[in-house]
Write a structure and sequence with these properties.
The protein has about 250 residues and is of the alpha/beta class. The chain contains nine helices and eleven strands. It is globular and about 50 Å long.
Length: about 250
């Protein structure tokens, strides 16, 4: 049963029926980092665990461990149950914590992680309609916790020369770059994600190194859809094999 659950991933993950549910950006983020053997990875704002599980499934031979952190207790419970459902509990744990309190919590020690992954809330309050369900607002909107809090938490948790990977709206890339540089995180590579050829970029995938040297590689753009249809492009399926379950090809 657990093997079947892995084959169907990300289908079947437990999520709130009416709250925040993961989307395409989380799957793309899971496929972007380069991962070393025995890496300790921190997922800030882990939700139901989708990014961490993607990393564990893609790098099963590397004996990595993922620690998820989320401010919503229900989400950490979903993440822990999903780990059991996928038989990934030996490599995954989740902590209920507000990342603004990461330094005082004692649950995350300074400079204790090789990698951090972050898919932060990015809408400002007032940019779009708030949900009557606060859990969805916390996941989607910068309310009490914003981009700077996530960047500071990543810098605190990363070892020297450790790497952090973000996915963030392309139109707000300058805000992300500014925050990273203010927190000793040097951008090293980035890739813009477009729906189709000719469309403006919707997201940017970005990797930064703590106390890294200057120099950033801008990688070729990633186009998600072929032509004007809704089928994923070949390059998108190669980049992110988890998209295949929604491609109509299986």
């Amino acid at each position: 049963m657990q093997e079947r659950n892995r084959d169907l991933y990300p289908r079947g993950l437990l999520q709130p029926e009416s709250g925040f549910r993961f989307s395409l950006d989380a799957l793309l983020l899971a496929c972007y980092p380069g991962i070393g053997k025995n890496s300790e990875i921190l997922d800030l704002g882990c939700g139901c665990g989708v990014v961490g599980f993607g990393l564990l499934l893609l790098h099963q031979d590397k004996h990595i461990r993922v620690t998820g952190v989320d401010v919503l207790p229900d989400m950490t419970e979903y993440a822990l149950e999903n780990a059991r459902m996928l038989d990934l509990q030996s490599g995954f744990t989740a902590i209920n914590m507000d990342i603004k309190n990461i330094r005082q919590s004692g649950d995350v020690l300074p400079e204790s992680f090789d990698q951090v992954v972050v898919n932060p809330p990015y809408r400002k309050t007032g940019e779009g309609r708030l949900s009557p369900r606060q859990a969805r607002n916390v996941a989607c909107f910068e309310q009490e916790t914003g981009l700077e809090d996530f960047v500071q938490a990543a810098s605190y948790a990363l070892k020297n020369r450790g790497r952090v990977n973000f996915i963030y709206p392309a139109e707000s890339e300058v805000n992300l770059l500014h925050s990273l540089l203010q927190n000793r995180l040097e951008p090293k590579r980035m890739r813009f994600v477009h729906s189709r050829y000719g469309d403006p970029a919707g997201f940017v995938l970005l990797e930064a190194v703590k106390n890294g040297g200057r120099g950033t590689i801008v990688q070729p753009p990633l186009f998600l859809y072929a032509d004007q249809g809704n089928a994923y492009s070949g390059e998108a399926l190669v980049f992110c094999p988890f998209l295949e379950c929604n491609s109509g090809e299986r």
